[in-house]
Description:
By secondary structure, chain A is mainly α. Chain A has eleven helices and two strands.
Amino acid sequence: MVNAYLVSLAATALVMAVLAMSAQLLVGLAGQPPLGQAAYLVVGAYTAATLATLTSLGPVQLLAASAVGAVAAAVTGLLAVRVRGTTFLMVTFGVGELVHAAAGQWAPGGSEGTHTPPVIALPGLAPMVRPGWVYLYVLACTLIIGAAVTVLTRTRFALLLRGIAAHEPRVQATGHHTSGLLLAAYTAAGAIAGAAGALLVAVTRYVSPADAAMGISAIALAAALIGSGSMIGACAAAILLVAVRDWAGGLLSGHGSTLLGLSFLALAYLPRHRLAGLLRLRDRGRT
Amino acid sequence: MGLSGLVNPYTITALDGVAYGLLLFVIAAGLTLIFGVAGVFSMAHGTLYLAGAYLAWHLGDGGWAGLGLALAAAVLIGAVGGAGLAAAVRPLTERPLDQVLATLGVAYIAADQFSTVFGAEPRSVDPPRALAGSVSLGGYQYPVYRLGFVAVAALIVVLLIWLVERSRTGAIVRAVVADPDMAAATGLRTRTTRAAVLVGGGILAVTAGVLGAPVIGPAPGVDTTILVYSLIVCVVGGLGSIRGALLAALGVGQILTLGVALVPGAAAFVLAAAMLIALTIRHRPSLAGRPE
């Protein structure tokens, strides 16, 4: 039952979970839906792939990818933070697709993509070739990123972001520069997405502009929405959506995108706000 | 000098850009009005173009009859598709994110069905035989169909601007864009207007697909490409503005043809910069809180 394909699928699902956390930071905390997070994933992935010619050390690639992802998000975020709501989604979608197009033009390997050698988890260890070891490495990194994100969601900064989602003029009235706060959140989300890109390179040992496709961003946003504000929920939903697209789609002779489309439709029409409300009531009853 | 001095490879490319820009305008006009009137960002708008392009490929027989048949089918499919989208987003009013998800779901399912039915390879669509040749423009050969396309698209542009800015129907549409609540209070049927704009936008997009198929042929992924470029046209031109969309579409058309010929690879950066400038001018921080 558990074969190499399933293990690498599970690792891909974890990468999507990290990307979903990056989307959740924006839509769950600040209330601004991004539809271009795959752009920063691909920026991080190409950073890791370029760095792979110098070092195969995974954590170094991860940090570099994260940093470059943050820089890319800080620059392109200047566009996104000028608008809110649906227009935010439209602008991030446009930016994401422009990065997708630019990657085909400028990135090493062009539209064919580029291959990378297997990464090394820690100095002194052997390169990770077997999917099981790669999975464990990705799992460890995901947990570390998840812990960092959890710390971030408990800060005063996160409270201000929640304030922007609830009622932006009041946050401004208390003297905060909300566009600056949003840009900071967008940069942080870009850093997380860039880290996801480095993990993607560790899993697939390959990166191509197709990794910046709208479908990846859409899965991240949909997972964040299913998670309705919770980071764990977003991760679980991302794993579920990857399972629907790749595993169930594989069983149905490659109609994964139809299944994904049906899940988006179900997500739109099911009363998920009420379902999330039930969960919150249960939590409140417990405390 | 005269005409032949004006005709060089760059003006020929610029003419291509005009064709591309007018094509984008016909698609983006629907998208911008749908967003302005109904508040819906329809992710399935590029799908409608792709449906029209496949329609032209499927029904085109190299004669006028095939084109006429495809255009008739395009109006029908556009109307049905638009009405379907209107029905789909109707229960989701006031939930713009769910509207995006629902139309995205439709786009995904349609894209999968297209590649199942029509195959994954790009299809080339030949124009009607009467327009298939090329004409000499100051020593350069230029496809007749593209000139015809520019003429027809220019006609559609004039009709559309007249419809939106001069007719009673257009006045209602603009009233709903400007202030839906006030429009409803004065007795305008905003719900009917919303559905009608989705139907109209659908017809425009599918028709653009049939007419534009020899220019941008049907292939998997064309739906996203068209959606992105018409989205950029909408953002640069100002959401809900038809004249803004026309100017933006012509500009984007030039960037994607002449710009690519002059500075290869810079198109994405120029388009992003255009969006940044448009957003900076339009959404100044003085409009605190809700910049929309």
